[in-house]
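Check out one such.
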Amino acid sequence: MKRGMYKKGTAKRLLKTLFQFHPVALPLITLCIVFTAAVSSMPSIFMQNIIAVLEQNQGGDWAHVGSQILRLVSILAVLYMVSLASSLVYNRAMAVITQASLKKMREKLFNKMEGLPVRYFDTHPHGDIMSHYTNDIDTLRQFISQSMPQLLISAITILTLFSIMIYYSVWMAGVVLGGVAFMLLVIRKVGGNSAKYFIRQQRSLGKAEGYIEEMMNGQKVIKVFCHEEETKAGFDAVNDDLFHNSEQANTFANILAPILMNIGNLIYVAVAMAGGIFLLTKAHNLSISGLVFSISVVVPFLNITRQFCGNINQVSQQLNAVIMGLAGADRIFAVLDEASEEDAGHIMLVNSKEENGALVECAERTELWAWKEPLPDGTARYTRLAGDVRLREVNFHYAEDKSVLHHITLFAEPGQKVAFVGATGAGKTTITNLLNRFYDIADGEISYDGININKIKKSDLRRAIGLVLQDTNLFTGTVIDNIRYGRLDATDAECETAAKLAGAHDFITRLPEGYRTLLLSNGSNLSQGQRQLIAIARAAVADPPVMILDEATSSIDTHTEAIVQRGMDDLMKGRTVFVIAHRLSTVQNSDVIMVLERGEIIERGSHAHLIEEKGKYYQLYTGAFELE
C-alpha cells in the first residue's frame, strides 16, 4: 500500500467507527471469524497425528489403530460442523452489518453536510460532493462485506499455520518463508502498480461521469451551436483516460494471481525436495515438538505449505479493494472533519403578546414576534421584531487577498424598500448573503432591530428574513408542498392565499391535479416563470418582516411581471425589502436605490433624485431605455 493514497490512521479510524456502529455484534462476528479461521488450519494437525499413529503401529493391532483414527476423524468432523455453523452466522450477520453501516455512514455524512456553511458548497463541485454518496460509499461496501472478513480470516490462518510449522520443524518453515519472501516482493511490485491504477481509475471515472452530466444538461446549447463533434472528441479524451487506467489496473490485478499461484507451486516443490533430503540424510530436526524428521512431519507440511501460500494469495487479491476502500473512507472522513457552521448566537425569535404594555412570550402562534435575549439573572429581555436593518462600515472578502465590499454603510427602516443596482460582480448579492449570515463579515457591524446579528441564532435570523433567488429550487413533491416549504405549519388555505398574492394561483389551478400536481426534477414540468412564481409564493407564506428579492422576476415575461408586481407590492407592504434587479423598471418605486460599483456604494437616493444627478444610475437607466 503506497503512501499518498490515503491518510495515515484512516484504517484505524474506520474500524473504530464500525465498532461504534455495532459495539456488540462486531466483536461477536470477529470471534466467529477467528474460530472459523483457526479450524481451517486444523486438518494438518490431525493428518500428522493419523500418520504418526500408522507409523507407530505397523504390524500391530489395527483394530485399536482404527478406533484411534475414527476418534480423530470424529473430532475433526465435529469441529467442521461447528465451523460451518459459525461461518453461516458471520456471513449472514456481515450482510446485515454491511448495509446497516453504509446506511449509518450516509446518514452521518448527510447530517454533517446539512451543518456545513454555504462556503463549502460554493467552493466544491456538486458532482464531487455526490460522489461521496455513490463511489466512496460503494468502495466501503466491498471493504466491509468482503475484504475485511477475508483479511482477518487469512491473517488468523497464516498466523496459526506459521505457529504449526515452527512447532513441527524450524528448517522446513525456513524453506517456506524463503519462498514467501519472494512472493511478497512480487506482491509489492505488481500489486502496488495495480492499486495505483485502480485509484486513478476511480478519479477518471469521476471525471467521465462529470463530463457526461455536464453534456446532458447542455444538450440544447450543444445542438444550437453544432458542437456535437467537439463534444464527442472531449468525451473520447476522458473515456480514453478511463480506459487506459482501467486496462492497466486490471492487467496488473489479473496477472498477480497466476504469478503467485505458480510461485506457490514452486514453494511446494521446494518443500517436498527439502523434506526428501532431510529424510534421506536423517538430518536433525529443530522443533518445539521434539519430533524427528519422518513421513508424519513432511506430508502434513506439504499441506500446510499449500494452505499457507493460498492465504497469502488471498490477501494479495484483497489489497486493491482495501486501498480503494480506505481511499473512499479518507474522502468521507475529510468531509466529516470539515468545520461546521459556527453559531455563537443566543438571541431567539419567539411568539409574543402584549400584557400591561410589555411583551410576553407565548406558546401559540401570533402576528407579534419578538427577539428574546436571555439575561444572566435568569430573566429575558424582549425586543419587538420590526425589520430595522443597518450596515455600518462593512468590509468583506471571500478570499484573503481579494476584497469584495468596502466600507458599506446603509440603513433600511421598517417598511422601506431598498434596491441595489450595478454591474455583475459589484457586490449586490454578497450584501444579501451577509444579511442571512451565509458568510460573516470581516469588519463593521450588521444589526437587526438594533441587535448585532452575530448575537442572533442563525436559524432564528433566517426565519425573520424571506429570500427569493434568481435560481429557483423546487423539490420533489406536490405544488402545495413546495409552497409550504416556506412554513411547514401553514394550512392549505394559507398556501393558496400566498399563491394568489404571488400571482401563481391561476396557472396552478390549470395544472392536471391543481395544487396536488407532483413536481419532479426541480419542477421540469413547469416553465421557468411558473417555477419562479411558486418560489415567490413560498416566501409569501413564510410571512417574514424582511424580504430579499434577488432578481426575483428575472425569468418572468413582461405580462406576467405586471401581474406578479401587483402581488409583490401587496407582499411588500409593511415589510423591509431589499431588491436586486438588472431590470431598472422594477426598482423605480423603491424608497432608496443604492448604486454599487466594485464593492462600493457610489450613489444613493430615490429614482427621481438619481435621474436628476445624471450620474451612473442615469447612464444605466437611459442605456436600458435605448436598448428597449
Remarks:
- Residues 389-627 form a domain with the Rossmann fold fold (CATH 3.40.50.300).
- The first helix runs from residue 10 to 21.
